[in-house]
């Protein structure tokens, strides 16, 4: 009703995740009653399907919806209201934050119980990568790092590495591999296989710094490991945006062993800083990080497929082997920093799906 009060008629409303999904439901209901809403197209964007917003039916009555009017899926699940399912069901177009994730969520493995609903909407389901704000994440202008650098002054990255090593109380030296991770400390982000592998990694004379908060068990585990290996592991259990940028700039490698990853920004930011990602092939990581092939000299990271500690270790060891070859590693850094994951391309793709949503709404689909 606010739109009526301010006399505004949008062409498209783009809602994001379960938090705003009932708006899509409301527009659909109002379009059955009032002509003005019949022209309002809706796009629903899924950032993480695992968080669906499941509540008792009484919550929908407060926004003017009939709590007895349930989706078939809701009837089958004890009559609980599923906000995410409603956003998907009632929108004209559904988008998510990478092409690979759009495919994955139509499968039982990644669909979180909504795979059939999404598969039914496959012709209106699109994956569009999130973009990076290079005005914020730019080593050439970043005020939080020790020394600015760009593609043509990569040697200056070493000063950032040494500064980070000092901050972590590590031995200082550009020849010592330094690996970083900035993450929510949860199973989704691969913490279960990381903690299984980390002792072996630390025995390889690798320095490792992790920044993040999350599940208490992982916070405690990482804290204890850092106490056990004070010379080559540091755990910052907190949120610190400035420190995050120092980690992006100072590390040689950036770790993202995610169980699933709708898009992921860490790997995109790390590449902007010439820090090479080590990732699992899933979701947006699969779309953005191509595995390094020493035979052809192509690829910009180290990718593993199977979700287990052994395959993670193999990817890390591969990265360490190539780190010792200065020429190869510099080429990797240069290719990573040359990638463009700005919002420009993604913005055009959003414009296209908005046009499609408007067209579908006009046709009454």
TrEMBL record:
Among InterPro entries, the record links this protein to: Glyco_trans_1 (IPR001296), GS/SS (IPR011835), Starch_synth_cat_dom (IPR013534)
User: What reaction gets catalysed by this protein?
Assistant: [(1->4)-alpha-D-glucosyl](n) + ADP-alpha-D-glucose = [(1->4)-alpha-D-glucosyl](n+1) + ADP + H(+)
What's the domain of life for this entry? Answer: Bacteria
Q: Which UniProt keywords apply?
A: Glycogen biosynthesis, Glycosyltransferase, Transferase
From what organism does this protein derive? Candidatus Hakubella thermalkaliphila
Q: What does this protein do?
A: Synthesizes alpha-1,4-glucan chains using ADP-glucose.
Which named protein is this?
starch synthase
Where the record annotates domain Glycosyl transferase family, the positions are 177-321
Q: Name one GO biological process term.
A: glycogen biosynthetic process
Molecular function (Gene Ontology), one example: alpha-1,4-glucan glucosyltransferase (UDP-glucose donor) activity
Family, according to the entry, reads as follows: Belongs to the glycosyltransferase 1 family. Bacterial/plant glycogen synthase subfamily.
**The Starch synthase catalytic domain, residue ranges:** 2-119
The enzyme's E.C. designation: 2.4.1.21
| Entries under SUPFAM superfamilies matching the protein | UDP-Glycosyltransferase/glycogen phosphorylase
Under the heading PANTHER family, the entry gives:
ALPHA AMYLASE DOMAIN-CONTAINING PROTEIN (PTHR45825:SF11), GRANULE-BOUND STARCH SYNTHASE 1, CHLOROPLASTIC/AMYLOPLASTIC (PTHR45825)
Xref: NCBIfam families: glgA (TIGR02095)
